[in-house]
Amino acid sequence: MNTGTGKGPVWLKKASILLLSALLLSACSGKLESGNGKQEAAASNDPQASPAAIDESPLGKYDPPIELSFVRDLSDVVENNVLGVLKDETIDNNRWTKLYEDQLGIKIKYNWIVKGSQTSDQYLQKINVTLASGDLPDVTPVNATQLKQLADSGQIEDMTALYEKYASPFTKKVLSGEGTSVFDAATFDGKLMAIPALESSIERSMYIWIRTDWLEKLGLQPPKTMADVLAISEAFAEKDPDGNGKKDTYGLGITKDLWGGAMGLEGFMAGYNAYPNIWLEDGNGKLVYGSIQPEVKKALQVLQDMAKKGQLDQEFGVKDGGKVSELISAGKIGMEYGEQWNSIWPLQLNRDNDPKAQWQAFPIVSESGDTPKVPLKFSTTRFFAVKKGAAHPEAVIKLFNLHLEKNWGETAEFDKYYAPPEAESVWQLSPVTPYPVTKNVDAFREIDAARKAGDFSTLKGEAKTIQEKLESYASGSTEGFSLWGWERIYGEQGSMGIADQYIKNDQFIQEKFVGAPTPTMVERKTTLEKQQNEIFVKIILGEPIEKFDQFVKDWKKLGGDQITQEVNEWYAATKK
Amino acid sequence: MRSKLRKELPLHLMLLPGLIMIILFSYVPMAGVMIAFQKFIPAKGLFGDQKWVGFDNFDYVMSLPNFTQVLWNTLFISSLKLILGLIVPLVFAILLNELASNVIKRTVQTAIYLPYFLSWVVLGGILIDILSPSGGIVNEFLGLFGVSKIFFLGDNDWFPFTLIASDVWKNFGYGTIVYLAAITGIDPGLYEAATIDGANRWHKTWHITIPGIRMVIVLLSVLSLGQLLNAGFDQVFNLYSPQVYESGDILDTFVYRIGLLDAQYGVATAVGFFKSIISLTLISSSYFLAYRFAKYRIF
Question: What is the pLDDT of residues B7-28, one digit of tens each?
């Protein structure tokens, strides 16, 4: 018995050691093999790699068709307002995928689709895992940091020559609509490593959207200074503008993310000469970061007072745009800062529930009453990177060509592919969505000129489609009812008129850093940004304002100083 | 001896699946710890040409202003969970054991065991709804007594306790059943003898039941001490928001955000490694203490 139990474990020990080492070895070698195998697989991944002939013209067709894989996000707007109303179309099979297949011979395939926005946690997590696993689709939409990591690790194609060769003249014109900065941001060691998804900076202009029916009811005037804004906010929260006898309305709508095109705070802060999140020149030709300037502290103090007085939703710290839009649609919020399109979302929701609700965009105002500067963040944050070894790296450029052509080119069918009345955001079904940077202001100017001349027959393309929407709204028909949002943009009181005015007054203050992310930015930027937002939210909700000074100190210590130095090196180099 | 081995071989073989799993999922991934000392670029692969940075990642983590806060939260939340998670089911099991009616006993037992089977994803959604200050049933109920609205999931004073209470509520059914099983194992003769000696219920509980299940209590404590730094990723992740990072952010959620959202794999691994070392120390010392004071050994 004794000897038995004594020997047993020894035998077992030996066996398990053997087993363990065998397993470890096989696990390791398995890993190495799969590592090598992956690259080979990547090169010969596409089953149709060899036979497809390349038609080298910008809109030439692949015959037989090729497959191009993407990954994408699926926003609420696309899910509900587009796919929800278009019965026969799905995200995998819709007018855009058909168009690309019929005209270019490119079948769009999504490796995965995540619900939410391009900046939501779910999407970020999924794309980071995809990048880390190395299992890339043919074309990956990435942000600047991810692009730099991909470029550094040599996983993506050099697009310099391909862009020159395959981009149509129109595409080239559109993508250089803001100078070379968008290409600089995607260029590493002189090589263009991705096609920038150019975003118009001017479109980032901020407006104050206010419920004018509440203004009238309470006998208030549109704001001229920040004091007016605060007075309106107070009145909206205190004086029961919805007339239900309860104190259940808020003055200003903001979200837990603080910034952004709807319910963001950029425009509010600009009223105090505070320009968070962007790099600006100080008086001495150096770049400084807007978020850590004392003006921000002042604006936060004002917001904190508003929160204390119950003018802000105490729960805003856990609510994203979708949640806050529910409050707006329920008629609980009377003012928000946002971009020109806010009337379409979220404000139209309010109008749908309450046809008496009326909103209007007003220019942002300053504390002193002087004409304020409108901050414009460098807004091209997405780049289409092509996997190294993809069978047709140029295909994504052809998608760009066709997208622009079908919306703004000679053969444009704007009211089919961009914004048909039944589904405004149909353009978002396309995996790539380039657009001319001043298209909205241009359309407004055309419509406005026609309006003043009393002759709409000269309009064409986008301006014509929009004018039809305005007329449909003006007719008071049921279909026209849902086009209220458009009237609020392009109509006589529309937000675009204010954009026009901003441009004429030269009110913009542009972000000065437009290069690729610096090394420290790649590592620290997201952490710093999150910390900033966390602390700002807390300050607004009542933490002592001194926390701001602590934040500035931490920001500098945790890489901010380093980033500032790198940004200034970049700035000095580009100015020469 | 040989025949004994032959007889026991099938039993040893039954160990194999478990062993393979442990090796695959617990030992092989340990190689990944080296990421903590690298400026890790995933595309280059685990054994690729990574830049070694020594303890830089650790330095960076320690310099983050919220790291001490996160560590404190983890310890605070998990130690309270641990203590309550031991006491509540123990008390409940003893009380349940005193019930005369077997039907009620089994019904209660099943009812409290139920939440244990729900995942935090499901429970999280339910809790967010019922705890909401705007229309949640809990606040509506408290309102009847004139209690002003409490933002359980958004208020830094309340959030940790919401976490602890909901965790205890979810899991105490499981512990109760373990204790009940242990109580069943106690020789009924002891109770009879005590009754003859004039012991009342309280005496019997104190002098027979509790000493009788002491081993199980120690075992569960030792096992849970090893989890001290696991304050419950699933739960916190499903319930928290930036507003309550201050009081509710724990090491695991912190690692998740740095690693998967910010893609700073080196830093995230450093935090994870740091956590593992502390956990190892804790479980070793608790094991030692259990032997020292209760003469209890698992191995």
Answer: 888 888 999 999 999 999 989 9
